[in-house]
Amino acid sequence: MRAAIIPVTPLQQNCSLIWCTKTMKGALVDPGGDLDRLKAGVAKAGVTLEKILVTHGHLDHCGQAGMLAKELGLKIEGPHEADRFWISRLDEDGGKYGMHAEVFEPDRWLEDGDTVTVGELTLEVIHCPGHTPGHVVFFHRPSRFAIVGDVLFQGSIGRTDFPMGNHQDLIDAITQKLWPLGNDVTFIPGHGPTSTFGRERQTNAFVSDYALG
């Protein structure tokens, strides 16, 4: 498995291109905008896109997912259906932030414990509410790698002051669902640099073992 980060939108959201090195089939996770940049990145990597994966329904993460799916004939998997509310207002939110966004209907809503495939890779789906109620994380166990969207960042955690956000749910998702996966797991967050769960357990001011002690 390989992964590349392609920042998109004025919010510099980390869209991830992940692919199976055996088949060179891949997926874009959270294609929120800048579709020309994303298509160029896919072409440069020599990857054949198979599907689109979405962690949650916020504008910068999925505002242009439906447009890309239509253009390239791809299916969209994710997020959890609890984020239908956010996806239903993408047109409206796009106007507020000066970004072009379109409402879409995923081909498959995801549940905790589901799996998604990319080429010959299998990723586990972990429902991690709090930032949004339907947020999911994608975990590739063999390579100890996760795409966590806006659940966790290097040194921080996702905002919970948006409609239907819940701070305690977010803390519980991180500590009860992500930490048990192991300190050695490297993750790509929705914004900013990569980190590991072990580093965040040691140093993150919001969810380190010391902070929650």
UniProtKB/TrEMBL annotation:
Residue ranges of every copy of the Metallo-beta-lactamase domain listed in the record: 12-191
Pfam families: Lactamase_B
One MF annotation (Gene Ontology) recorded for this entry: metal ion binding
Cofactor dependence: Zn(2+)
Record keywords: Hydrolase, Metal-binding, Zinc
Highest taxon above the source species: Bacteria
Name of the protein in its database record: MBL fold metallo-hydrolase
Source organism of the structure: Tsuneonella litorea
